[in-house]
Specification:
By secondary structure, the protein is an alpha/beta fold. It contains 16 helices and 16 strands. The protein has helices at 3-9, 20-56, 59-75, 77-93, 98-104, 108-123, 161-173, 187-203, 218-225, 241-250, 273-285, 304-316, 338-344, 362-365, 382-392, 405-414; strands at 131-136, 142-149, 152-157, 177-181, 211-213, 234-238, 263-267, 294-300, 320-323, 357-359, 373-379, 397-401, 419-422, 442-443, 451-452, 459-466. It has a seven-stranded parallel sheet, with helices on both faces. The protein has a four-stranded parallel sheet with strand order 5-4-3-6, with helices on both faces. Strands 1-2-16 form a three-stranded antiparallel sheet, with no helix packed on it. Strand 12 (397-401), helix 16 (405-414) and strand 13 form a beta-alpha-beta unit. The N and C termini lie far apart (60 Å).
């Protein structure tokens, strides 16, 4: 998490005034805070009103609105990339990390993908109005439990313009209003995205206040949003650990924790070296800034062949490895590893780009790097691997690479995470990959929603009882 984002996530404080000048500054600050509180309360009330209108909208109306959003994204691609360039340039000047810059970047290809994701949501069934269960009681009353929107969803995130579109689309399809706080790093991009979305709402006669932003109110606005109990039904933070924990600690609105991903891959003794190599490379390097990227590689002490393959390819791909001394010798000098060189030299960067190698520490095991960096540990058994994961997991995604059905089933049963993967990349933990169209976030908690949150997780249920004058005796 960048210093700028951390500052935005923290609560503003006002010092006691001791002099006339300080009293004046304090008065101005208090007035500003009062204005912000009133503004956020007003935005929340308008969102509540919009949510009631959305709850009555037919599927066709919602789908036409989403089609307008997708078309608007494609038509505005040039303006969106130009706005995004402004954010990226500002981020570079402010020393934003490589991983955050990657999250922030919005290319033509990513815009096309966002539009396609919105169209996939159109094709999905409406999650509202589904009968969960129903029956006729002995007294003739007809009872049904039906799905309904949550109402108003507040989302606080950082340097992730794709979240603006994903949240808006999922919220609209599921009949919810959304209040968004996207952070100063993506101000220009998010302003443009919001304009596209609100114009789509306006063009189809949907309530324009169904999607609103509080970015202009800064960190004070985010803090006020956390207090809007009664207007905002649920708050979803997406970002680094500091942001998530700040929201969880300070919010008066119910919170769904998402996104924190200290993800492990365990290579079992029976693992196929080629499969292990390909999975680990993809899980770590395909997009290291995202929460489903692998951060720790656990190697069984007897998995030398697979371990050598995985460590070599990670090293050649430029990943900084924090390695247990017991397997440091599994990463030989490239000049001495002729087999690996012959196998991989054609499709990897030159040895000059190879990552550094250091000795692993407990701090490394507890870190979500979000970059081309990885902790590597050694375990003597499956039991020890599960124990290590239990100690350091954030409950996001955990994976095992094994040729043993028994070990795979034990791993599935005993590892406590929202997603458990056998012989595949951790990068598959994603709403789009799961067929949800997109995702609000990946919940790491156990109440209401767990794992990738699609439209179904943005609904709750309502009991409806229909009678003909019955009274209880």
């Amino acid at each position: 998490m960048s210093q700028d984002s951390t500052a935005e996530a923290s609560t503003a404080t006002t010092s006691t005034a001791d002099s006339p000048a300080e009293e004046s500054n304090s008065s101005e600050s208090n007035t500003s805070e009062s204005n912000t509180a009133e503004a956020i309360a007003g935005i929340s009330r308008r969102a509540r009103s919009a949510s009631r209108a959305l709850a009555r909208m037919e599927r066709d109306h919602k789908d036409r609105t989403l089609a307008a959003v997708a078309a608007g994204l494609r038509e505005s691609a040039a303006a969106l990339t130009q706005a995004n360039k402004e954010d990226l340039e500002r981020g570079r000047k402010n020393g934003m990390s490589r991983s955050l810059l990657d999250r922030l970047a919005l290319t033509d290809e990513r815009i096309a993908s966002l539009a396609a994701a919105v169209e996939e949501i159109i094709a999905l069934d409406d999650p509202v109005g589904r009968i969960v269960q129903g029956r006729t009681l002995p007294n003739g009353l007809r009872l049904a439990q039906t799905t309904v929107p949550l109402g108003v969803i507040g989302v606080i995130y950082e340097a992730r313009p794709n979240v603006t579109v994903d949240i808006a689309a999922l919220a609209l399809k599921s009949g919810n209003a959304a209040v968004l706080r996207g952070g100063s790093a993506a101000t220009s991009t998010n302003d443009m995205l919001l304009a596209v979305i609100r114009e789509a709402l306006r063009s189809t006669g949907a309530p324009v206040d169904a999607v609103q932003s509080i970015d202009s109110f800064g960190r004070e606005g985010a803090t006020e949003l956390m207090t809007q109990r009664g207007s905002v039904d649920v708050l979803i933070p997406r970002g680094g650990r500091e942001l998530i924990q700040h929201v969880v600690t300070n919010a008066r609105v119910p919170v769904i924790e998402t996104g924190e991903g200290n993800v492990h891959i365990f290579i079992d003794a029976s693992a196929d070296p080629t499969i292990a190599r390909d999975i680990v490379l993809n899980a770590k390097t395909s997009r290291p800034s995202v929460c489903n990227a692998a951060e720790t590689l656990l190697l069984h002490k007897d998995a030398e062949a697979a371990g050598r393959e995985a460590l070599f390819i990670l090293h050649r791909a430029g990943v900084t490895l924090h390695v247990d001394p017991r397997v440091r010798h599994w990463l030989p000098a490239e000049a001495q590893d002729e087999v690996a060189a012959e196998t991989h030299a054609a499709d990897l960067s030159s040895p000059e780009t190879a990552g550094a190698v250091t000795e692993v520490t407990q701090e490394h095991f507890a870190t979500e790097f979000g970059d081309l960096e990885m902790a590597v540990g050694v375990v003597d058994s499956l039991d020890e691997a599960i124990e290590h994961i239990s100690r350091y997991t954030t409950g996001h995604t955990e994976a095992i690479i094994t040729d043993s059905v028994a070990n795979a089933e034990r791993f599935i049963a005993e590892v406590d995470a929202a997603a458990v993967i056998v012989n595949a990349s951790t990068r598959f933990t994603d709403g789009g990959q799961f067929g949800l169209g997109a995702e609000v976030g990946i919940s790491t908690q156990k109440m209401h929603a767990r794992g990738p949150m699609g439209m179904a997780e943005l609904t709750t249920t309502k009991w409806v009882l229909r009678g003909e004058g019955q009274i209880r005796v």
